[in-house]
């Protein structure tokens, strides 16, 4: 095939998460967190990607996708790969994670539970859960309508069947049974039910867990004469009743019972996915924290200062003197939120415009914008309500900001707004001066603690004038924007990147060495992949870091030689996009090289002119390309082999040094 299918490539990425679970160099509780990440990733994958293939297979015919694969083939491959991965995950969990916890005095009771601990479980049930578990008999039910993602216990008592929905929200999932100086015993609520079922039905009853995952796509009725917010709200209600895409069940359930359950849920056989005794491993995000056992966790590193702002009593002047580069989580995102807060209370600020793609319910950014609107400033917010799984939060903040007096827009026909930016207009000596923030990650202070991203605060008119053009378009889709310096999708980004690569090809043909450094989350767009191949064939070298999906595969010896792709999985989620397209062209961007980003979204790539920052970005990519601890080679086989390297620190640990050195440089220069 000419391309690797995006979903099979994504499974290879989730396999790299498994490698972190398996790594003895990762602290034990962090390995447990990677278990949760793997499970959470897979859950979303089934709700979105697998559901879309089932939908295409059922309603659109088994037609080949743009990579040349049929849904039936992809679904078959997914089932095979996921089955192998989950078997491996089970071995890691029971053979390494659970014994490791026990060695640390954390006795996580799961699997085989001895008689002494069963007595503790029965006692806990009698004291805390007696009469809590309400069984629903479903023996004679012809059909069942069950909640999306909820864990159910299927109870078989002879020829009778019962269901119990596990209410983790009210009951909790992880119960501390016993605690002393030597050890802590923890059990799952599932087992409190399982080992007390005899008190409800007698000793012959058997208990097996299962869950269903439903299609999470929002199918918006374009014919409805309603605004986008009302349409989204209606569609969100249907998400819990969407087409089932997976029935995950305890592999020990006798086939006749799981088959009967399958029929009651109106599922086909391909929806059946065998699993272990327990499901929803992403709940391990909520596993108890043991602050006295610091060796079980990543050691927290002190965030680096921002000398330009810390040493200034006037941030406007500091930003006006020189662009402020920020790197999270190596530096605090508070610099961004604090600057916005200053603007809300500043009488000179007249207008604030921003995009919101993913925003938390307790957003500091949202609160600052609300305050600005209440203070009488003109506030424009583009809240992207089609940001999957953040629709409710974005609508919440959009409506709240509207009530405060802001102008809020929720959508543009056929385009998502994925750019991460805000623009502040401040009157200084009678003239409006603009200040801007441009970033690679969401305006979300929570994810900024765990996502590795970059951003700049600036008053450089080369940025602010183009950004003003972006917001004019967002406010009025009929406006025809013009850009001189920013690369903005879908207007100029693809064309400008393509032109830069073609210039490199011309130079390579002329005998000049051409090396392009690119860092992305995903490389999926067939047009860009074909261009990379064409350039590699004439000698252009691509040094690429691609964290997740990578559909590239070499079709010639030159392509294999000249294109190196590495993925880094580590403590922080690599989220920065960097395009180093020539000695004079280095960009930070919100856009991956996916068709949807380049052609179906509002995205911004912004140039970096500061030589010190350019050097930092190139060193970051270089360290990641040679990270022999956390870097994996991306190839057609998808075997995730470690990069050959002799580094003592991971590339993320080097980043702390790079950011610290940049701050020293800025301080000395002042």
UniProtKB/TrEMBL annotation:
Gene Ontology MF annotations: polyphosphate kinase activity
Cited Gene3D superfamilies: Endonuclease Chain A, Polyphosphate kinase middle domain, Polyphosphate kinase N-terminal domain
Coiled coil spans: none
PLD phosphodiesterase domain mapped to chain residues: 413-447
Function: Catalyzes the reversible transfer of the terminal phosphate of ATP to form a long-chain polyphosphate (polyP).
Similarity section: Belongs to the polyphosphate kinase 1 (PPK1) family.
EC top class, as a word: transferase
Keywords assigned by UniProt, alphabetized: ATP-binding, Kinase, Magnesium, Nucleotide-binding, Phosphoprotein, Transferase
EC numbers on record: 2.7.4.1
Gene name of this polypeptide: ppk1
Entry comment on modification after translation: An intermediate of this reaction is the autophosphorylated ppk in which a phosphate is covalently linked to a histidine residue through a N-P bond.
PROSITE patterns found in the cross-reference section: PLD
Catalysed reaction equations from the record: [phosphate](n) + ATP = [phosphate](n+1) + ADP
Record-linked NCBIfam families: poly_P_kin (TIGR03705), PRK05443.1-1 (NF003917)
Protein name: Polyphosphate kinase
């Amino acid at each position: 095939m000419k391309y690797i299918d995006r979903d099979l490539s994504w499974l290879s990425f989730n396999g790299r998460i498994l490698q972190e679970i398996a790594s003895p160099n990762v602290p034990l509780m962090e390995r447990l967190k990677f278990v949760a990440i793997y499970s959470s990733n897979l859950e979303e994958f089934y709700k979105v990607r697998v559901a879309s293939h089932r939908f295409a297979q059922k309603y659109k015919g088994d037609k080949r996708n743009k990579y040349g694969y049929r849904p039936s083939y992809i679904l078959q491959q997914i089932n095979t790969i996921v089955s192998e991965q989950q078997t491996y995950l089970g071995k890691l969990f029971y053979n390494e994670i659970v014994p490791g916890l026990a060695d640390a005095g954390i006795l996580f009771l799961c699997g085989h539970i001895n008689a002494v601990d069963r007595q503790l479980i029965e006692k806990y049930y009698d004291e805390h859960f007696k009469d809590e578990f309400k069984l629903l008999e479903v023996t004679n039910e012809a059909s069942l309508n069950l909640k999306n993602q909820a864990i159910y216990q299927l109870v078989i008592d002879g020829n009778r069947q019962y269901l119990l929905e596990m209410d983790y929200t009210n009951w909790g999932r992880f119960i501390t049974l016993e605690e002393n100086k030597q050890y802590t015993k923890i059990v799952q609520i599932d087992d409190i039910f399982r080992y007390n079922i005899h008190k409800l039905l007698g000793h012959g009853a058997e208990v097996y867990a299962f869950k269903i995952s439903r299609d999470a796509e929002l199918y918006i009725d374009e014919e409805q004469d309603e605004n986008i917010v009302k349409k989204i709200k209606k569609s969100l209600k249907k998400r819990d009743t969407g087409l089932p895409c997976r029935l995950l069940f305890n592999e020990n359930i006798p086939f006749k019972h799981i088959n009967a359950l399958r029929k009651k849920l109106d599922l086909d056989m391909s929806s059946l996915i065998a699993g272990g005794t327990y499901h929803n491993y992403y709940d391990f995000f909520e596993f108890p924290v043991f602050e006295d056992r610091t060796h079980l966790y990543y050691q927290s590193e002190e965030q680096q200062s921002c000398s330009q702002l810390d040493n200034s009593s006037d941030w406007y002047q500091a930003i006006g003197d020189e662009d402020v580069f920020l790197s999270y989580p190596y530096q605090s995102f508070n610099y961004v939120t604090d600057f916005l807060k200053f603007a809300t209370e500043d009488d000179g600020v007249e207008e604030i415009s921003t995009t919101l793609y993913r925003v938390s319910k307790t957003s500091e950014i949202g609160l600052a914008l609300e305050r600005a609107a209440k203070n009488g400033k003109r506030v424009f917010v583009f809240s992207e309500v089609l940001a999957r799984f953040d629709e409710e939060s974005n609508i919440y903040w959009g409506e709240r900001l509207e009530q405060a007096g802001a102008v809020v827009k929720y959508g543009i026909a056929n385009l998502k707004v994925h750019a991460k930016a805000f623009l502040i207009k401040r009157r200084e000596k009678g003239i409006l001066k603009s200040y801007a923030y441009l970033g690679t990650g969401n305006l979300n202070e929570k994810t900024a603690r765990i996502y590795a991203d970059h951003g700049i605060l600036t008053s450089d008119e080369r940025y602010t004038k183009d950004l003003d053009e972006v917001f004019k378009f967002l406010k009025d889709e009929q406006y025809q924007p013009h850009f001189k310096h920013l690369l903005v999708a879908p207007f100029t980004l693809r064309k400008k990147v393509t032109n830069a690569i073609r210039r490199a090809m011309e130079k390579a043909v002329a005998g000049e060495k051409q090396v392009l450094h690119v860092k992305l989350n995903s490389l999926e767009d067939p047009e860009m992949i074909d261009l990379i191949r064409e350039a590699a064939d004439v000698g252009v070298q691509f040094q690429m870091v691609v964290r997740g999906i990578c559909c590239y595969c070499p079709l010639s010896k030159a392509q294999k030689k000249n294109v190196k792709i590495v993925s880094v999985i580590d403590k922080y989620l690599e989220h920065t996009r960097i395009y180093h397209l020539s000695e004079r062209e280095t960009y930070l961007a919100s856009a991956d090289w996916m068709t949807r980003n380049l052609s179906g979204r509002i995205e911004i790539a912004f140039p970096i002119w500061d030589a010190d920052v350019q050097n930092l970005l190139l060193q970051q990519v270089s360290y990641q390309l040679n990270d022999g601890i956390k870097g994996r080679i991306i190839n057609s086989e998808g075997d995730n082999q470690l990069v050959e390297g002799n580094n003592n620190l991971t590339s993320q640990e080097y980043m702390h040094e790079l950011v610290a050195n940049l701050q020293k440089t800025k301080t000395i220069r002042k």
